[in-house]
Write a structure and sequence with these properties.
The complex is a heterodimer of chains A (267) and B (471). Chain A has 5 helices and 17 strands. Chain B folds into 2 domains: 293 residues, no CATH class; 62 residues, 2-Layer Sandwich (Dna Ligase, domain 1). The chains are: A alpha+beta (267), B alpha+beta (471). The interface between A and B is medium-sized, with 28 and 25 residues.
Chain lengths: 267, 471
């Protein structure tokens, strides 16, 4: 499937900030089933975009901007994908799968998540893939997609207690649950071409990869309740949202900030 | 079992290191020590060396009790110890380079991978990244205890941001003022040059891109940190700027310090702030005491952090028990300093042994420090033993256990007069691109309570001046 992406993030400041520093993880990489035909990342200011690779193998762009009343980041390009039955192969793996059992503040399983994971996967015990499918259905059905009560700092436990959240929260809950039953799991940020043909989206997408011995990494999309397909364009991967966030930044000065995202994902 | 006393042999004779002091004590007027102790307390109050005790309702500032009777080692004894310390720090650096690099030690099956991967002190962000001069631990505070004339055990490898060196220096300064005659009569190795050696070490580790006169700063979390006094003390003695995160900024992967003359490039940061607060763009996003972009500058090789990020994985108590094997693996040598035999409660057999022998053992939290959350079996009440039994059963992975060591004792001036009290020692090991430096001395901590083995200041411990001298 051909997926064409245009992702613009615009900050507007009520006063000119002294300094803005950001790390972008907005550049997808090739792997089996995903080929980047074209891609560019731009910032609408005279900054030095320094490209690097983080510990997980994600491509990062770091920059510092001084002054100015607005700041726009653009990521744009085209990705060719093939359905691989959810399997993710050919990625550059920097760590053994066991690393992805590591707990982070955002993905710490509390007793509610631990017992949820244990109970729901009990019958499928011994069959990891099956357990993960049960978990996928359980998180998708058990949580309501709702952007109002959560933000980027919401933990898996908090979202699960409300049974609400966005793709980020559902992914964190899935990750926490999977790790609590001993299955390595990790957070993926990227783009999703919607099946209903809607092109304009409010934000990028997030899903999960879990490790199945014998198969390798397999993608699960708890927000949509499906395995990862050729409609998913994978950009960055880490232990949680913080490690894979499309944009992480800090700012000195600048007063009030207004953030607008313009995202088009289409054929 | 009677502990080894560093002054007096079992037959009552005096060991060589203490001969001059014993003679002085014998002839000193009875009230002299009392007067000197009062003077010492006044001096420390005036200097303002305080520390905060955690776990109390209000972390109040206190003065660590100072004992005016020095702890003494001969130059020969010291030399043996330093060889062991140097070897240990070499192994720590080799281990960290490997863990964040090729991970040969995991492939060789010497350390279980989950102890690394699931360790909160392991920083995945450092994997595959090189650090200037391949050095991770530039400043170590290796805690050792002595059990007989020749044997030292390492208790802890403090490889993150070890503190206490200001006490070593202040204790000496106060002792010289109180007992000038003793320093006149004895050749005590100086410790005042510690900061010169530290500065030489920090300068030597500057990135290759730095100028020949690199800018070194000391970064503190701020005045509310319990070790703030030491941070300002050291910056002052080093003659470098004491900075907080907000005094630094990063532009295009270069770190600058704001000064009245405009931005000045920074090459080496002696940071006394924990990893997770260093850079809100990589670690805790809510950290307001870090520097955004610092890790990018670090990875780009434009600044050296001392110690490196992620060194905590080497001084973790769970890793500690593997140190003899780690040392053999990288250096191909036998460890000079001993490791305390350690039961890893994560292993079922070890756990059942520990539960069966709880009253004889010392139990520690794997990720704890400062003597908090520790059980000293022989001194514990029945209730404390039961509490720990439950803790161990609930979270065996969180604990290790060790036999109760007969820590050596040193003469100490307490309420009842001069009496033996248990001590440990934290020597400071500096590791630069141009070699290892160890100041003859260190911080001797003393358990002031009769029979107590817990020397931590937060648990009622005091300090002593530590003398290394020719006899």
């Amino acid at each position: 499937m051909r997926i064409s992406i245009r992702h613009e993030t615009r900050y507007q400041y009520s006063a000119s900030p002294t300094r803005v520093t950001q790390i972008l993880r907005l550049t997808p990489r090739d792997h089996d089933g995903q080929y980047i035909t074209s891609w560019r990342v731009e910032v609408d200011r005279p900054v030095r975009l320094s490209q690097s690779e983080d510990a997980f193998g994600n491509i990062t762009h770091t920059f510092t901007a001084e002054g100015g009343e607005s700041l726009t980041m653009l990521a744009e390009g085209e990705v060719q994908t093939h359905d691989a039955n959810g399997m993710v192969t050919g990625t550059s793996e920097k760590f053994a799968p066991e690393l992805y059992l590591r707990e982070t503040p955002l993905t710490k399983a509390d007793s509610a998540i631990t017992s949820f994971a244990k109970e729901i996967t009990e019958e499928a015990r011994g069959d990891r893939l099956n357990q993960l499918h049960v978990l996928l259905a359980g998180v998708h059905r058990g949580m309501i997609f709702d952007a109002r009560p959560t933000d980027t700092t919401t933990t898996a436990a908090e979202a699960f207690a409300m049974r609400r959240g966005v793709c980020q929260d559902l992914s964190h809950v899935f990750i926490a649950a999977a790790r609590s039953i001993g299955i390595p799991a990790r957070y993926v940020s990227g783009y999703f071409r919607r099946i209903d043909g809607v092109v304009d989206q409010e934000a990028g997408h997030a899903w999960v990869e879990a490790y199945v011995t014998g198969l390798g990494w397999v993608g699960f999309d708890p927000a949509n309740g499906i395995s990862v397909t050729d409609a998913h364009a994978r950009v960055a991967m880490a232990l949680d949202y913080l490690g894979a966030a499309p944009i992480r930044g800090t700012r000195y000065g600048g007063g009030e900030e207004v953030l607008n995202v313009f995202l088009k994902v289409q054929a | 079992m009677a502990a080894f006393d560093e002054m007096t042999n079992a037959d009552g004779s005096i060991r060589p290191a203490y001969a001059p002091l014993a003679e002085w004590l014998r002839t000193a007027p009875p009230d002299l020590l009392t007067y000197r102790r009062q003077e010492a307390e006044l001096l420390f109050r005036r200097i303002g060396v305080t520390f905060a005790v955690y776990g109390e309702k209000e972390a109040q500032e206190r003065i660590i009790p100072f004992d005016i009777i020095p702890r003494i080692m001969t130059t020969k004894e010291w030399r043996g110890l330093t060889q062991g310390l140097e070897q240990r720090v070499k192994a720590l650096n080799a281990f960290l380079k490997d863990i964040y690099g090729r991970q040969e030690i995991l492939k060789a099956g010497i350390v279980p991978p989950d102890l690394i991967y699931l360790n909160p002190a392991f920083r995945p962000e450092m994997a595959g990244k090189s650090v200037p001069h391949d050095l991770y631990v530039q400043i170590a505070g290796i805690d050792v205890v002595r059990v007989d004339a020749d044997t030292f055990y390492v208790l802890e490898d403090n490889a993150r941001t070890p503190s206490g060196v200001s006490y070593m220096m202040e204790n000496r300064e106060v002792m010289i003022r109180l007992f000038p005659e003793l320093f006149g009569q004895n050749r005590v190795a100086p410790v005042e040059n510690y900061t010169d050696e530290l500065l030489a070490t920090l300068t030597s580790i500057a990135p290759n891109s730095a100028s020949s006169d690199p800018t070194v700063v000391l970064m503190t979390p701020g005045q509310f940190n319990s070790a703030y006094y030491e941070h300002s003390f050291l910056a002052d003695k080093l003659g470098i700027e004491l900075v907080e995160g907000s005094d630094l900024f990063v532009k295009d992967e270069v770190v600058y310090m704001r000064t009245t003359k405009g931005p000045q490039r920074v090459d080496v940061i002696y940071r006394r702030i924990d990893d997770e607060f260093l850079d809100p763009l990589v670690f805790r996003p809510d950290s307001t005491i870090g520097v955004p972009g610092l890790m990018s500058a670090y990875h780009a090789g434009n600044v050296t952090l001392a110690n490196a990020v992620g060194t905590g994985v080497a001084d973790d108590k769970a890793i500690y028990s593997y140190m003899p094997d780690i040392l053999r693996f990288y250096l191909g040598e036998e460890p000079i300093l001993k490791n305390v035999p350690t039961w890893r409660c994560r292993e079922p057999e070890a756990l059942s042994y520990v539960l069966d022998h709880l009253p004889e053992l010392v139990v520690k939290e794997v990720h704890g420090s400062g003597g908090y959350g520790m059980l000293v079996g022989p001194h514990a009440s029945k209730q404390e033993l039961e509490t720990f039994r439950k803790k161990l059963q609930q979270d065996p992975e969180g604990f290790i256990a060790q036999p109760t060591l007969a820590l050596s004792t040193c003469p100490t001036f307490v309420e009842s007069g001069i009496a033996p009290r248990h001590v440990d020692l934290r020597p400071f090991v500096l590791c630069g691109a141009d070699g290892v430096r160890i100041i003859p001395g260190g911080l001797t901590r003393v358990a002031l309570k009769d029979g107590s083995l817990v020397v931590n200041s937060s648990q009622g411990g005091g300090t002593k001046d530590t003398w290394v001298m020719d006899v």
